[in-house]
Design brief:
single chain; 651 residues; alpha/beta; GMP Synthetase, Chain A, domain 3; 8-stranded mixed sheet; 7-stranded mixed sheet; binds adenosine-5'-triphosphate; binds magnesium ion
Length: 651
């Protein structure tokens, strides 16, 4: 937030409230009193849950060790193995339960039971050992969404190696940076990945990376697309040559609770990615507990988290949380618009998916494509929906509610980060009535607050910086190789509190409304205005599917609001709509927030995880040389928007 300003404006009021149905509430995993119970003794709450839910090799005697804060330790003398918790312990009374219904983009499918997954993980764990991978070594995984991806992660967990999954859409440069930073010894990749009907040449990028990274001793290659690839003698091994003959039996290493489990680089919305380090027990507890309560998962559910495993959402809510909870999940390889715009809805209908978790960016794309695609399919198996990744505009929430949820099912808007490991602010369906656009309340045991510049709590009704006032088990432990950056980034802005970098306001009921990144906050005529509220006002116009706003320098007002807008299916952007939209914002949230300029565009610059990247729009709005575009999914759009902006009219 710019200096001299204490708080963030609260402009948008959203009064719709959706209480859960009585049937849902009666059967919900979370029952009234859970927040209060945890509040009485938050460390006791985590301890009870950890002893209850985790299968320990050695039970911990300590809960939280804060002697070296902010390098917190949880359950520090406990021993366990995450692959054991995700697989072995389910074999006795549930080996035949399906772990993943896998759906390939071209239409092929595979079904993996817990027994299948356990066996494949054992074999791959032994294969890794045969390549010299030992406890503590780093393994880079660069794959599309195929079953070998969770298999490779769990094989690492089984032998105590540290995995670093690199999203399959990243370039070889990004792969090099990540392999180098972690000094990975083995790289697991494939001959390619299916995406939008084409093959992503993973092996080419992997070769380039392996050639440039001296730490890599071996590359294991899964055959997926049958694309011809070069195999380097001595270094490269086909998965199908290496793995099938390995013994299934591979002892699960007894890991210390605080041994590292994985490194995952943040998605890079703000700049240089950070290697976030997660450890074993606290992370497992956080993911399985939130998965149980937030998604209300029951033994018969068919659960589908549509994220890519290359992001933390996939790590926590496709792999570790759901498997530890013995859940049946769907794993889909490809794009949502392949072969047609209804692919996801056809999968939901076919598998009888009951719980579906996706991102606002996807929901806005569905809105843009049109209502007819979900309408083609029977979605009545759904009983819970979730969203994560960005603030969800209330109108996008309503669209999701009506067109996917049939107006019946609860939506959980879950706020968390790569750094937090697990969901932090969220409705518990069944006990927390939801409001479109609000992540509602902190998860039991979590203490969140909204503070001003000086770190003083802002009273209900006001906005400011979100902070977390207590450590929590699934928290990051550091940034890999850079303890100082860990302390600087997260623990220095407000002494004693964790600072996630997001703006937030609370309403009179104490509900939390996330307002986007504090770096993006605009200062207009002395008012701090969040990007989220102006964007949500724009999206509440029926012609608009998606909007991004930035503050650009202005002699008169300090900053002026520059808006970039993508329209829904049938609407066309012209001068009339432009002035209509400006008036619409003024009416919805006040004249102060009226955009000075609006550019219509077919798409917005997004990270590869689909998040809007505002800093580049700011460069365009201020006519500057463009900043780093390497983490963009759609780099071409930036030039196009720049051209359109140059011809757009200003106020
Ligand atoms: P980087 O930290 O490298 O800039 P990133 O922040 O995009 O990348 P993630 O850890 O994937 O990487 O994203 C976490 C961020 O996403 C949060 O800090 C917040 O800004 C946003 N976010 C996630 N879920 C929600 C939500 N439900 N509501 C509002 N914002 C959310
Ligand atoms: Mg971040």
């Amino acid at each position: 937030m710019p200096d001299g300003q204490r708080a963030l404006e609260n402009l948008l009021t959203e009064n719709r409230v959706f209480p859960p149905s009585e049937e849902f509430a009666a059967a919900a995993n979370a029952q009234p009193g859970i927040h209060e119970e945890a509040e009485k003794d938050w460390q006791g709450f985590w301890r009870r849950e950890a002893l209850d839910r985790i299968t320990w090799f050695t039970e911990p005697t300590v809960t939280l060790d804060d002697s070296d804060a902010p390098f917190f330790k949880w359950f520090a003398d406990g021993e366990l193995n995450l692959a054991y918790n995700c697989l072995d312990r389910h074999l006795e009374d549930g080996a035949d339960k399906v772990a993943y219904h896998w759906v390939g983009e071209p239409g092929d499918t595979r079904t993996l039971t817990y027994a299948d997954l356990h066996a494949e993980v054992g074999r791959f764990a032994n294969a890794l050992k045969s390549l010299g991978v030992a406890r503590g070594d780093r393994v880079a995984i660069y794959l599309g969404m195929i079953p070998e991806l969770p298999v490779a992660m769990l094989a690492c967990a089984r032998i105590g190696a540290v995995h670093s999954v690199v999203f399959g859409g990243f370039s070889s440069d990004s792969l090099v940076d990540r392999i180098d930073d972690a000094q990975a010894k083995v790289l697991v990749t494939a001959d390619g990945a299916w995406r939008r009907g084409a093959v992503v040449p993973l092996k080419e990028a992997a070769d380039d990376a392996a050639n440039r990274c001296p730490s890599i001793e071996h590359v294991v290659v899964v055959r997926r697309t049958e694309k011809d690839v070069k195999m380097e003698e001595g270094r490269d091994l086909w998965y199908h040559d290496l793995v099938p003959d390995q013994p299934v039996d591979c002892p699960a290493e007894a890991m210390n609770a605080e041994d590292p489990l994985y490194i995952l680089y943040t998605s890079g919305t703000t700049g240089r990615p950070k290697g976030i380090v997660h450890t074993q027990a606290g992370y497992l507890l956080g993911t399985m507990l939130t998965h149980h309560y937030v998604f209300d998962v029951k033994p018969d559910d068919v659960y589908w988290c549509g994220a890519d495993i290359g992001w933390v959402t996939g790590h926590s809510y496709i792999v570790y949380g759901p498997l530890a909870n013995h859940t049946t999940g769907v794993l889909y390889e490809g794009a949502p618009n392949q072969p047609d715009l209804d692919r996801l809805w056809s999968i939901i209908a076919e598998y009888g998916v009951t719980i579906f978790y996706t991102a606002p960016t996807a929901i806005r794309a569905f809105m843009k494509w049109g209502d007819e695609y979900p309408a083609r399919h029977d979605l009545t198996s759904l009983r819970l929906l979730g969203t994560v990744g960005e603030p969800i505009n209330p109108e996008a929430w309503m669209w999701y509610h009506e067109h996917i949820g049939g107006g019946r099912v609860p939506i959980v808007d879950t706020w968390w980060q790569t750094e937090t490991g697990a969901i932090m602010i969220t409705p518990l369906p069944g006990i927390v009535p939801t409001k479109p656009g609000s992540a509602t309340l902190p998860f039991p045991g979590i203490e969140a607050d909204v503070v001003d510049e000086e770190g003083n709590s802002v009273p209900l009704g006001g906005g400011g910086f979100l902070v977390l006032r207590r450590p929590w088990p699934a928290m990051l432990r550091t940034i890999y190789g850079d303890d100082e950056r860990y302390v600087d980034t997260y623990w220095s802005r407000f002494p004693g509190a964790y600072f996630p970098g997001d703006g937030c306001k609370r309403d009179d009921d104490g509900y939390f409304w996330l307002l986007g990144r504090v770096d993006d906050i605009m200062l207009v005529s002395g008012h701090n205005i969040s990007t989220t509220e102006v964007e949500s006002a724009l999206v509440s116009h029926p012609a608009v599917a998606e909007a991004a706003v930035v503050g650009r320098k202005d002699d008169l007002t300090g900053q002026a609001i520059a808006a970039f807008v993508t329209l829904r299916g049938s609407a066309t952007g012209n001068e009339d709509l432009l002035s209509e939209l400006r008036d619409h914002v003024a009416k919805a949230i006040g004249p102060i927030a009226k955009p000075a300029s609006i550019v219509f565009t077919d798409d917005l610059p997004k990270t590869r995880s689909g998040k809007i990247m505002r800093r580049l729009l700011k460069d365009i709005a201020e006519d500057r040389q463009l900043g780093d575009v390497t983490t963009l999914a759609n780099a071409d759009i930036v030039d196009e928007i720049a051209k359109q902006a140059a011809t757009a009219t200003d106020d």
